[in-house]
Amino acid sequence: MSRLENHCWTCSCASRVDPTEPSSPAANWLKAKEMMSIITSVLTTAYGSLHHVRTANLLRRGLVLFTVGAFLALVLNLLQIQRNVTLFPEEVMTTLFSSAWWIPPCCGTGAAVIGLLYPCLDSHLGEPHKFKREWASVMRCIAVFVGINHASVKLDFDNNVQLSLTLAALSLGLWWTFDRSRSGFGLGVTTAFLATAFTQLLVYNGVYQYTSPDFLYVRSWLPCIFFSGGVTVGNIGRQLAMGCVEKPHND
Asked: Are 233 and 114 in contact (CB under 8 A)?
């Protein structure tokens, strides 16, 4: 009888499972939970680092685009003032930033927004832009844009309509030569429309004026300048975005 009781006691003790044993389900569950916690911590840290890197790249690209846009606006606006295309109050001619200080910051901000929108729109449409993706092409595009602006104040036609058609052809040629994308054309047209409307509002409120306006309060060729400027800044933004993506692969 005692032998039978000892046998039953031994069986009951053997049937109890220690949760700390490696083969028990409880231990496996604890290990899985610990592993998931480690993985979650690693992913959170990696996501935070990636978000920080992307934010830093975005700010860096925006600063470069702002600087380029402000510099081009300052130079090209002075060119138009010297050729009496645009007329500012007299104090502007005596001191450079007395009342026209807002032009470079506004154009720089617009350049930053447009330049950052171009690669985002390419990614959203699933059409990565790979046509002439090199800095040499971007620099040639900038040179052509400056040339179009120079032509707008240097070329002498019988009327503004002929000049506007010529600049429109040059602007479309710039887009076809350095862009050829639907997103580039669409954003260029949008930029031309919004910038022209904003300029009309400024001239209407007497901030400054154009000589010989033939398109409401401005020159009819002004949308062509804004279109080519949007395409140019977009190419700069695309190249900057591509440089940030390809930098880790240079080694």
From this structure: yes
Task: Give me the amino acid identity at 8.
Answer: C
Distance CA 223, CA 125 (A): 26
- Partners of 131 in the beta sheet? none
Q: How many CA atoms lie within 13 A of 105 on its CB side?
A: 5
Average pLDDT over the chain, rounded to whole? 77
What pTM was estimated for this model as a whole? 0.71
**CA max distance for the chain:** 127
pLDDT tens, 37-88? 777 766 666 555 555 667 788 888 999 999 999 999 888 887 777 766 666 6
Please list, in sequence order, all residues whose beta carbon lies within 8 angstroms of the beta carbon of residue 238, skipping any fewer than 6 positions away: 118, 119, 122, 129, 133
One-character DSSP codes across 41-84: HHHHHHHHHHHHHHHHHHHHHHHHHHHHHHHHHHHHHHHHHHTT
